[in-house]
Amino acid sequence: MSFKFTEENINKINEITTHYPDKQPAVMAALYIGQEQNGWVSYEVMEEVASVLEMKPEDVLGITTFYTMYHQKPAGKYHLQVCTNVSCMLRGGYKIYEHVKDKLGIDNGQVTDDKMFSLEEVECMGSCGTAPMIAVNEDYYENLDIQQIDQILESLKNK
């Protein structure tokens, strides 16, 4: 299976590269664009990013595997990231994580059968002052309790 950026996405990447003296610094944005187009960052996406930005594929792989924002396998329509680092842990992050696991019937890194939800336990997402928190795709939900988690999950199921 091969992957090629759409013309629109190539144009986005080309515009981003104009902000730098060479193309390589656009790698994170290009990976994110590839993830949006493909649903996840497959090896084919990494190869295409490397080709477009004139990089070695192994350099793109290193960036993809370092950052947790890139999904290296298919994710659900709603990717839930539950923070369990110190601030969140002290304010119930593990309780929330376990509740979400039980409610959705999946473990860390898994996707529900209907492909609606995927779950990931993560370290600090930079919301320590408003712990505990989860991210749903790009949206942060902070100062949470179990009841609020249930409301969030129900609202996502009804979208």
Q: How would you describe what is shown here?
A:
Helix 2 (27-38) packs across helix 3. The protein folds into two domains: 7-66, Arc Repressor Mutant, subunit A (Orthogonal Bundle), CATH 1.10.10; 78-157, 3-Layer(aba) Sandwich (Glutaredoxin), CATH 3.40.30.10. The protein is an alpha+beta fold and 159 residues long. The mean pLDDT is 95. Helices cover 46% and strands 11% of the residues.
Brief digest:
Helices cover about 45% and strands about 10% of the residues.
Order of helices and strands: HHHHEHHEEEH
The total number of structural domains is 2
Quickly name the level 1 CATH class of the largest domain: Alpha Beta
CATH-derived topology of the largest domain: Glutaredoxin
Q: Helicity level, as a percent range?
A: 40-55%
Strand order of the largest sheet: 2-1-3-4
Spans of at least 5 consecutive residues whose pLDDT stays below 50 are none
Q: Care to count the β-strands? A: 4
Q: For this structure, what is the CATH homologous superfamily of the largest domain? A: Glutaredoxin
* Tally of individual helices: 7
Name the beta content range: 5-15%
N-to-C terminal Cα separation, in Å? 31 Å
Q: For the report, how would you describe the main beta sheet?
A: 4 strands, mixed
* Apparent shape: elongated
Structural class: alpha+beta
This entry's quaternary arrangement is single chain
CATH architecture of the largest domain: 3-Layer(aba) Sandwich
Please, what is the average pLDDT? Answer: 95
- Supply Rg: 17 Å
